[in-house]
Amino acid sequence: MSTLRMFRKKPDDLGFFGKLGFYFLLILGALVSVFPFYWMFVVGTNDKGAVFHVPPLLTVGDQFFDNFKRVLEKADFFQALGNSLFVSSMVTVSVVFFCTLAGYAFAKYEFPFKNALFVFVIATLIVPQQLGVLPTYVIMAKLHWIDSYKALIVPAMVNAFGIFWMRQYIASAVPTELIEAGRIDGGGHFRIFWNIAVPVITPAMATLGILNFMTVWNDFFWPLVVLKNKEHYTIQIALQQLFTTRDGLDYGMIMSATFTATLPLLIVFLLFSRWVIAGLTSGAIKS
Amino acid sequence: MAEPVITSPHAESKRPFLTEQRRSRITAYTFISPFFILFSIFGLYPIFFTFYLSFFKWDALNPMKFVGFKNYDLVTSDPTFWISFSNTLIMGLMGTVPQVMLALLLAVLLHSGMTKFKKTFRILYFMPNITSIVAVTLVFSTLFGNNGMINWMLNGLGLESVAFNSGWWGVKIAISTMVMWRWTGYNAIIFLSGLQSIPMDLYESARIDGANRRQQLFAITLPLLKPFIIFVSLQSTIGALQLFTEPYVFLGQAGTGSTRQEGITMVTYLYSEAFRNGFFGTAAATAVMLFLVTILFSILNMLISRGTGGDTGGKKA
Lengths: 287, 317
What we know:
The complex is a heterodimer.
Chain A: H1 2-9, H2 15-45, H3 64-74, H4 77-108, H5 114-123, H6 133-142, H7 149-153, H8 160-173, H9 176-184, H10 189-218, H11 221-226, H12 235-244, H13 251-271, H14 273-286
Helix pairs in contact in A: 2-13, 3-13, 4-8, 4-10, 4-12, 8-10, 9-10, 10-14, 12-13
Chain B: H1 20-53, E1 56-57, E2 65-66, H2 70-76, H3 79-111, H4 118-130, H5 133-143, H6 149-156, H7 168-196, H8 200-208, H9 213-241, H10 245-252, H11 266-275, H12 280-307
Antiparallel strand pairs in B: 1-2
Helix pairs in contact in B: 2-12, 3-7, 3-9, 3-11, 4-7, 5-7, 5-10, 7-9, 9-12, 11-12
């Protein structure tokens, strides 16, 4: 099919120079996208002064462990990494479960106000998070959840995007006959969901899981508001704290930490890029 | 979309209260209830309470005191608020407009039949978006340092260095660049999926009718891409109005907090009013105004997007 398309395009071929400019732009864009990752690593592996070397230093050095040692002196880096891992995992498990359940109901059940409720779910996507941040903070204070992971986990346990995403997938991927057959065999509603629907839709659940994990892992604003104690910091707050520390900015140290904190997500993304991209761009299809 | 439940075979004379249909409805409501419960507590209630709170003086500890519109007066007579307001708009424009145009260009390039390694390009363009904003800001603060790489490049081009971390425009350019870096590729991929949804035979017949590339672009591509353009610009606008992390982290380094005037945004203002100064009332008033501005710009955005590329003549195949 793609060869056919290329053949079709022939009449307006751009010629050699056109093609050159074309690839130049594409490759330039790719370089700009990738360079900061490489730069992170370059600065993180060279000594303190390397960052402002003239001309810029572009080769990887061997100071990574020295730099990283200074990270550990200044912050509970691994504690923060662990905190982020814990919060992100808890939220992700919960989001995948509840969103799948709700998406399944919206895709395969008939009930009064179904469409209105679904439109409401979609509409909540537009509401900016910051609008409700003050009262949410007050609620957390009343519940004595300030500086606890509950404040990060509980409000995030289910979200509109996940419901939308799972509904779209379940509607097309789970044959209604399969569910009916389950009913005839006398299976309960949850049993059918768990034993018949879930095995068919694990790819969509995995995608939602990865996306959600990344979102929670990267979140900054809400953890900044809620977390007070150093031991509870998530990795993003810990990184930001490294940057705030006075006595001259030690960029080698900061970048070695930033790189270490970014690497896990980068690996996950590169392994599952097709799914992640499909998930993150799916919001546009609806509009 | 058929119901999974077949009309019950309970054809006895006595109908139980819990018919199959009722049971299946209750199940469905149970399945969707977690969202509605959580959203009422942590979404809907806070929104209404924010409006309510904006009419009270409150430090989150002592009893609330009704003050009418005084919070709004206080905020609108505070020069810092207006600086945060104009900063948000300026950086929104600087970050969003070139970003959407660049994304469109990249998408058209990527979509072209002659592009090889499409999948690889897609992955590379998407990489910035998975990085945390904190990491992005930290990396770019090295590039935008006084002796950083960007200034080195400017000097190489015979231009003067720019004070990216303290100048009025410098800070805004640096922050807008961070926003653009993180989102341009993402938007390009969205545009790409829009381009791929346009049927090829439209171009085919246009070409038979003698339309050149330019005409095809304006008569077919842009009009059919409009829903995607609206989505992307709306999302970028809303995102731009909520700008917080980049300026907060980028300007926090000097130890003076992040309320420096070169880069203070509306959300930064809100944050420092509430969580630094303890003025929850004025912070709530700021939140309400931010909300109104968001609605205003969303409508404006829709109107502008609807206006452009409206000519769909030549759609006939």
